[in-house]
Amino acid sequence: MEEQLAKMHQEIVRLKWQTGMLTLLLVATGLLAFTTAGTARFKEISVERINVLESNGQLRLVISNQSRSPECLTYGKPFTPPIPGGNRPGLIFYNDEGTENGGLVFRGGKDEKGNFNATGHFSFDQYNQNQVLYLSYNDDNGNQNTGLHIDDWQKSPAFWNWRAEYKKAQKMPDSPEKAALLKNLLEPRPGQKAFAQRVFVGKDESKTAMVSLSDRMGKPRLQLLVDSNGVAKLNFLDQQGNVTRSLAQ
User: Fold this and answer.
1) Rg for the chain (alpha carbons), in Å?
2) pTM
3) 102 and 127 in one domain?
4) 206 and 149 in one domain?
5) 206-231 burial, b for 16+ CB within 10 Å, e for fewer?
6) Which end of the chain is more exposed for a tag (fewer CB within 10 A), N or C?
């Protein structure tokens, strides 16, 4: 009887060992299939966030819902002070150095009073700066501004450094020194702003279709307009925004 129990124990141990080895073999085969083939096929997948990485682990693209959307990154690290995530569902792109350089974001919904707000935004960022080319749709309960924007951004300092200095200046007590510092940050060279919208092609809140060309201070200087009644005109403006000449149809 004792000899039979010993044989049964040996057989159980052998079966456990064989089962363990078979499990390891199946796991290794599965991992090898993924690493060698490099692809997997799914009919449907539900996720909150997908990170697309280079082979060295560097981030190139994030696809996410709102709550898991990433904070702003430069060279793979958060801005200082940070621009938190959790507020821009869609796609965020990163350049070869791990710095954010554009995105595709959509939002929309009603508040508790029944008023709605909707946005769509597709942007391209200047190297180490903010967006300089973007398509945007903004609708605040029927007040709609939609179009193509082309902006100027200074070459240096880098956007995150400029923003840090601007945020620091904003926290200063009101004084002539604060006003002078903010003015210098916004207009680092006479007649040139740190950033300015230069071109807008689209439709404004008054339902006027327009092409607006601005100077380096962001002041509109030439406008081609067709208003909501179909009246067309061409306006020339001075630096103060006054129409100096207008050509009607």
Assistant:
1) 29
2) 0.81
3) no
4) yes
5) eeebbbbebbeeeebbebebbeeeee
6) N
